[in-house]
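User: Here's a chain of 392 residues. Predict its fold as tokens.
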Amino acid sequence: MLRTIEQYQERFLKGFNTTYKRYLYDKINLDEKLIGVVGARGVGKTTILFQKLLELRNLGKKALYISLDYPFLSSMNLNELAFEFYDKGGEYLLLDEVHKYLDFASHLKVIYDMSDLKVIFTGSSAISILNAKADLSRRVTLFSLEGLSFREFLELDKKVNLKAFSLDQILANHQELANYLKVDLNDFKNYLKFGYYPFYFSKKSSYFESLLNTINLSIDIDLTSIGLIEQKFTYKLKKLLEVICASEPFEVNYTKIASLAEISRVKLYDYITYLNDAKLINTVEQSSGLNKLVKPAKIYMNNTNLIYAYGYSCKVGNVRETFFANQLKQSHKVNISKQGDFIVDDKFTFEIGGSKKGFEQIKNISNSFVVADDIKTGSGNKIPLWLFGLMY
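Assistant: Prediction complete.
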């Protein structure tokens, strides 16, 4: 079995030539004993594993890559295979799509406790490792891999090197940054349509078809393999996703959504949680009050590419807010504000709009900013929307 897996590994590596490294790559410390990288389908988790495999080889380490959706592994005992590799001098085990393996958390715990193997695994963003297995949560260092930021899209598309900037840097120095970077707004519009998933660069002519297929696989395979939903009910999740995509975030009517998706109100909240965990939608709560204990204040698609993939008439206000919430949630707390659109880290209030957007709604609020689309450079507390895509 071990020899067969090694042969598969070599076949995969022969066709692997991706040299661009995502923002998360250097954060993965190879000295850690158990590392998990979770994220939505298509954001590049497998690519990171292969790149780490090549790095380990260059360091002279003995590493083994295993994709847990290999059909011949269905009857395999994972920890026994791991121990066999370890007994033959193995040092690093790289496990891809760990959620496809039944009771994976228990096997990872045994490998951790009974060997010196270092393990890096990837899995669906819907894995609730920290909640499902408290004993594993104390052992694992868990990272979430998001889709491409606007910065990363530009680096890949234009073959340039761009630095990431913190929120504080953007708020304080946005004019200088915008003047220095001289971004073409057409590049930003392209990113909003097809720049979030790395596979765009290998499937430009069939990007939206591939993206819709990715959405279906996330529901049909990932959510069912974890046991969140039965296969016979996956069509309900798909219908709910379409209803959410066609709805305006500021018009969240749960009774109407449940009716259109043909789902009971009781099941609706569970299904919304599943889609949010799978990084297909993005739920944002109120900044205060009791409502957030029951249901999110607004529901967006996870990223703007998903809106365009469904082919609906894309409301520009929806696209702008979706982008902002998506990019900021990567490293900040984002809530719906009572005045303005969003409040970030319970401190900064943001009103999102077009180039002519003014401060009327937030004029009496400290630490408030207008985030404007269709402008290259801002002034004062008015900041170009595209700049918030340079945060990771």
